[in-house]
Amino acid sequence: MSDQRDFRQLPDLALRTLGGGVVWANDEAFAARENLISPGPSVFDAGSFGHKGKVYDGWETRRRREPGYDEAIVRLGAPGIVRGVVVDTSWFTGNYPPEVAVDGLAVEGHPTVADLLAADDWTPLLMRTGVAGDTENEFDVTSDRRVTHVRLRIFPDGGVARLRVHGEALPDPRLLDALGTVDLAAIEHGARVVGCSNIFYSSPNNLLVPGPPRSMGEGWETARRRDDGNDWVEVALAAESVVAVAEVDTSYFLHNAPGWATLRGRAGEGGWFDLVPRTPLQPDTRHRFVLDAAPAATHVRLDIFPDGGMARLRLHGHLTPDGRTALDRRWTDARVAAKPLSRNEIA
Question: Allantoicase domain spans which residues (predicted)?
């Protein structure tokens, strides 16, 4: 993964397993719009044909016979600030769109499709840009504005396998106030992975997604170690918080779960302190630990010994007053930021 852009280490805010949805497309004659945000890479069967022609694991529109473009609107599973997009045209060779554009929109509540189509304040995240076929086309996005929806436009028509919208989730502080005790390590609440020793098999972002895992493939798994070290992941919490209950979940990891784990916290640039000392882990088990009078923390580090796979990391607690103030400042700044521009505009 070393050849990928830095933004691809951030979570995909549009992913279906994070709660994203493709709420509308003007055309999906050949392949369904919902495929755009499916987890995992697009798959291809050369001999697979249906009543409408070749079956593609992506979104494909009919051939245009008039001027215009096709478009799809995606509701992000976790609203936030977009740092990069991937318009993946895998398997589309003679039928991919030559150019694409991506726009963002921030709306309150639960808008209808009619509301989204009528909105006049869509702002560009990626200006109309050329793309290649059968390629993961990566684009940095320069934006400080929080968005809840993105719009993919393809010029003039064609097929896109996946749309990835990588960024930093930014929740409404009022939501966390109302919920009280929340999972401070959840992507949807603004937590993010800021360091990891090994991502050989799967991304550590999987630790922070909502819902229980459905297979070993939905967790974080490292390569087998052949030295005396251990693997670890560091998470920046939603904001400065006090963690009351920690959950370390090895579900579905049977013969490759870590033998032990520790949890440590730190506030800002301060030193690390123990939340859960080195503790044996059981395979395929949700381990829960009540933390009595834990100090406030902005970051938590999970160390596993020596290696293996973890399904989920949950850190339930509440924001400190300073954390609530900081989150409110981020929220306010992201709502009033200047109109974003992409660095990838093609004249």
Answer: 19-169, 190-319
Do 264 and 330 touch, CB atoms closer than 8 A? no
CA nearest to 155, candidates 81, 230, 61 = 61
6-169 has which fold? Jelly Rolls (2.60.120)
Confidence at residue 337, expressed as pLDDT on a 0 to 100 scale: 60
Q: Class of the 173-329 domain?
A: mainly beta
Spans of the chain below 70 pLDDT:
1-5, 47, 49, 51, 53-55, 336-347
Cis peptide before 306 (omega within 30 of 0): yes
The pTM of this model reads: 0.82
Residue 210 is given by DSSP the state S
Query: 212: how many CB neighbours lie within 10 A of its CB?
Result: 11
Residue 187 DSSP symbol? G
Q: What is the DSSP string of 170-218?
A: ---HHHHHHH-SEETT-GGGT-EEEEES--SSS-GGGGGSSS--SSGGG
> Is the CB of residue 147 less than 8 Å from the CB of residue 79?
yes
User: CA 200: distance to chain centroid?
Assistant: 18
Residue given tokens 């596993």 in the structure block? 304
Q: Where are the domains of the chain?
A: 6-169, 173-329
C-alpha to C-alpha distances, 232 to 101, 221, 228, 308, nearest whole angstrom: 38, 11, 14, 10
| 175 Cβ neighbours under 8 A, 6+ residues apart | none
Listed residue (170, 210, 214, 168) closest to 192, CA to CA: 168
Token pair of 334 as six digits: 């992201």
d(CA 14, CA 163): 8
Residue ranges with strand state E in 218-259: 220-221, 231-249
Identical fold, 6-169 and 173-329? yes
